[in-house]
Amino acid sequence: NAGVTQTPKFQVLKTGQSMTLQCAQDMNHEYMSWYRQDPGMGLRLIHYSVGAGITDQGEVPNGYNVSRSTTEDFPLRLLSAAPSQTSVYFCASSLEGRGNTEAFFGQGTRLTVV
Amino acid sequence: DAKTTQPTSMDCAEGRAANLPCNHSTISGNEYVYWYRQIHSQGPQYIIHGLKNNETNEMASLIITEDRKSSTLILPHATLRDTAVYYCIDSLLGGYQKVTFGIGTKLQVIP
What is the DSSP secondary-structure string of B24-88? Predict the structure, then answer.
């Protein structure tokens, strides 16, 4: 049981390049989400999904797109990378959303945009 | 902005109990209190949660005041491996997906 798997672990992009951060979970969790973590800022929610085919914006969605075509996968797309998107990105999943279940986090993707 | 308030940092001697406080000034009746921790730069790890009763598991104990405006996470015998950033959050009805983690408390366990 792998839990939440994020790839890649490290990435360097040039300004204007695009890329997709991958997130997969094998726990059949309905809820998945993406956070970014910057020094002194805690974790901020980018986008989330309550099930396949359903996504919504979080606190800092600009510059990012998501889709949820399957229960297992929730990729995060940077369409045109900017230095302000240099951050550590975490994906999380949970079984349901009634406030009584824990979230599982991946190990993070460290992205640098130069 | 995070809905909870925590001290920025705390120290604890190895082998002693670590008591981490959290204020939940805007918590509503249907929200649970959750605690997570983040070791180094790994992904956050769930510790414990509760609604209004005190809770205990193999990792920690959680004390929630009667008015639910504050909670305390207790690590009964802190070890060096407990050095981490600890986050308390109020889980909104509908799940974590709309939750923002604050900057948490940096706990340093001292040998």
Answer: -TT--TTPEEEEEEE-TTSPPEEEEEESSS-EE-SS-EEEE-TTSSEEEEEETT--GGG-EEEEE
- Unique residue bearing structure tokens 């396949």: A52
Query: Per residue in A81-113, pLDDT tens?
Result: 999 999 999 999 988 755 567 889 999 999 999
A39 close contact with B: CB closer than 8 A: no
Please list, in sequence order, all residues whose beta carbon lies within 8 angstroms of the beta carbon of residue A15, skipping any fewer than 6 positions away. Answer: A81, A82, A83, A113, A114
Distance of CA A94 to the CA centre of its chain: 13
Residue B30 at interface with chain A, using a CB cutoff of 8 Å? yes
Grouping H, G, I as helix, E, B as strand and the rest as coil, residue A98 is: coil
CA distance A71 to chain B (A): 15
Interface test with A, best of B24, B45, B96 (most A CBs within 10 A): B96
A29 contacts A65 by C-beta, under 8 angstroms: no
CB-based contact (8 Å) between A100 and chain B? yes
Q: Which residue has the higher pLDDT, B103 or A15?
A: A15
Task: Provide block-wise average pLDDT over 10 residues at a time, chain B (111 residues).
Answer: 84 97 87 91 92 93 94 97 94 58 92 95
A96 has a chain B CB within 8 A of its CB: yes
